[in-house]
Amino acid sequence: MARKMLIDGETELNKHGGEEVSSNFEFDLFVIGAGSGGVRASRFSASYGAKVGLCELPFNPISSETFGGVGGTCVLRGCVPKKILVYGASFGSDIEDARNYGWEVSEKVDFNWKKLLEKKTNEINRLNGIYKRMLSNAGVKLFEGEGKIVGPNEVEVTQLDGTKLSYSAKHILIATGSRAQVPSIPGQELGITSDEALSLEELPKRAVILGGGYIAVEFATIWQGMGSTVNLVFRRELPLRGFDDEMRAVVARNLEARGVNLHPRTNLTQLIKTEDGIKVITDHGEELVVDVVLFATGRAPNTKRLNLEAVGVELDNIGAIKVDEYSRTNIPSIWAVGDVTNRFNLTPVALMEGTCFAKTVFASQPSKPDYNNIPYAVFSIPPLSVVGLSEEQAIEQANGELLVFTSSFNPMKNTISGRQEKTVMKLVVDADTDKVLGASMCGPDAPEIIQGIAVALKCGATKAQFDSTVGIHPSAAEEFVTMRTVTRRIAASGKPRTNL
């Protein structure tokens, strides 16, 4: 049924169709949170004819209960500034490698952290402005302040001066993301999270990083690449729990080869302030004195101040909002997308969920997010990127035999530079159907290469189709279409094993 829209006081038929919207509401949609998911949902909903309001906290590079910013975690204090620092850190090893390519580089090479920090801050300020203009151009009404839900169809926005504004909406979308967590140990106030790590006034000469996930591994290579002494402390045998075990081992070897000190099966028990820095005590009795301790111990859904319990929105045991396959909560007028739902916490996934929400609610196109074959990357130096199933996941799900193909080689650039660092690639294939179930790569340009492989897996590519594809020579990427020899064959009840 076509729905009527209120535009500048006039009633107009929405050409895209959809549900009937009551004129009693001030907005068709009100969004809380202007990160990737919220901005995408707002813009697309507006493009389908919805009257959209959106609220976000005032901008600050370091988030808190009172500061955030249009653009959200990824743009302002996550993926984008982190990637800028990764680029900055990469130049150190590139300069080293350049000497063997004939470049006469002086022995002393200085790094100016403050200059890079200023450039990074300028860029996120620019992006914050761009996102605001995108919303304005889409016709989305932006409110600066903290939003909370006071009824199934009512949002309250508290402005900086404490003034409270109330708005009614046919639909409310929560897209408040997540926030870094700090472990409960004595001296925890001496540590920092990734927010502060991206805005440190001084580059730490000595650092301890607690955690074994994306953020921990990435900052370990960033700071080490800039000349810091880095100790990476994590509870498991290998970093990057949940990734393919074989590729985790490759990342660990690369970290050690580049000079990161690994402390597996280790945790921190106490931080103590001393004249020489922060004394870090581990559960093995080790003592390290450093300038900075980074807690990269996970993130929690940002739901505490939204008043959700009072309205009746259901949360899970970690505070994430429960939603159905269309991103709808148990309250029919309230929806949620992105990290706040703790489904698949990646920026492009939040974008997908926001798009599907807008199509479902305002374009008469019921759309479910598809979480199959989502590619992702760890921007370590060199990076790791994957799509589809790991070997362990494939074994768990397999009904028949699996074929595993691997390739480990010295990148062409390293043959001249002399750097001893292998690129490793891997394909996991269903032996019965010949379908490629997963692809992994650790090495230069891995994310750029895996993005293309992801299209193939999304289309259901077989190993035979990979084999029949002509490679680009000379490139690392061509290895994905020239791996002909099975590294190992695994029965459905088999256990993964590696030969690397």
TrEMBL record:
Q: Biological process GO annotation list?
A: cell redox homeostasis; cellular response to oxidative stress; glutathione metabolic process
Q: Does the keyword Cytoplasm apply?
A: no
What UniProt keywords are attached to this protein's entry? Disulfide bond, FAD, Flavoprotein, NAD, NADP, Nucleotide-binding, Oxidoreductase, Redox-active center
Cofactors required: FAD
Cystine bridges: C74-C79
GO cellular component term of the entry, any: cytosol
- Name the EC number(s): 1.8.1.7
InterPro entries hit by this protein:
FAD/NAD-bd_sf, FAD/NAD-binding_dom, FAD/NAD-linked_Rdtase_dimer_sf, GSHR, GSHR/TRXR-like, Pyr_nuc-diS_OxRdtase, Pyr_nucl-diS_OxRdtase_dimer, Pyr_OxRdtase_I_AS
* FAD/NAD(P)-binding domain ranges (all copies): 27-354
Co-factor remark: Binds 1 FAD per subunit.
One short Pfam family name for this protein?
Pyr_redox_dim
The residues listed in the UniProt record as binding FAD, with positions renumbered to this chain, are K83, G147, T176, G177, S178, D339
* Residue ranges of every copy of the Pyridine nucleotide-disulphide oxidoreductase dimerisation domain listed in the record: 374-483
Q: Which GO terms describe its molecular function?
A: flavin adenine dinucleotide binding; glutathione-disulfide reductase (NADPH) activity; NADP binding
Return the broad EC class: oxidoreductase
Tell me the active site: H473
Specify the superkingdom. Eukaryota
Q: Where does NAD(+) bind?
A: G211, G212, G213, Y214, I215, A216, V217, E218, G298
Catalytic activity reported = 2 glutathione + NADP(+) = glutathione disulfide + NADPH + H(+)
Sequence similarity = Belongs to the class-I pyridine nucleotide-disulfide oxidoreductase family.
Q: How does it assemble?
A: Homodimer.
Q: What does this protein do?
A: Catalyzes the reduction of glutathione disulfide (GSSG) to reduced glutathione (GSH).
Name of the molecule in the record: Glutathione reductase
To which species is this protein native?
Crotalaria pallida (Smooth rattlebox)
